[in-house]
Design brief:
Blueprint: H1 7-14, H2 20-29, H3 34-51, H4 54-62, H5 64-67, H6 80-104, H7 106-112, H8 123-148, H9 151-156, H10 177-193, H11 198-215
Helix pairs in contact: 3-6, 3-11, 8-10
Amino acid sequence: MLPYATLVEVEAALGRSLSFSEAVWFRYSARMPDYLLYCHNIIFLFAIFTLAPLPLALIELGLPASVSPFKIQPKVRHPPTSFFQCYKGVMRVFTLVIGPLQLASYPIIKFVGIGTGLPLPSFWEAALQLLVYFLVEDYFNYWIHRLLHTEWGYEKIHCIHHEFTAPIGFAAPYAHWAEVLLLGVPSFVGPALVPCHTIIFWLWMVLRQLEAIETHSGYGPRPTS
């Protein structure tokens, strides 16, 4: 919740007029508690997990021949039940693990300094923050992933993620609850090291999940023999 009642008060505090995006943010967030703003993240993640993989899934089910040349494993075709079972598994983990984790992590988010106030960050500030987040997340994700590919890690945890040997976008977050927790940590490390505005935190979470969905989509350059 912003400590200003009117746009005039904000502009007086900042010593300048608000930009269009800042004015929109003020009107939306001025009377909304910070906790509710943070909880928007759950809505965004649900929408991404549900909608981002959907177009390719529908095309693959309805017009498989048109997309086969672009698939890494063109001979593998998943039936509709596979897509549904995958999505159902993702939503189960989302409901029991991801959602509660997002709700419970709010005190940490506030502690590290992720705020909701004004002014909004500039384009370059946001771009540099996102670059740091991607680099940090990629580094820690790599080592956790290697740990999960040890004999114990794979048999006890990671094997669930590999049930879809021909991956689909919906399978990006399809995993054991422990893996979801482990791989969720690197996503928070970057913002903890380089705190940002809540809007950038939302954007980071959306972009990170879109990257994971694209990676698991099953489409891309085919390996050469």
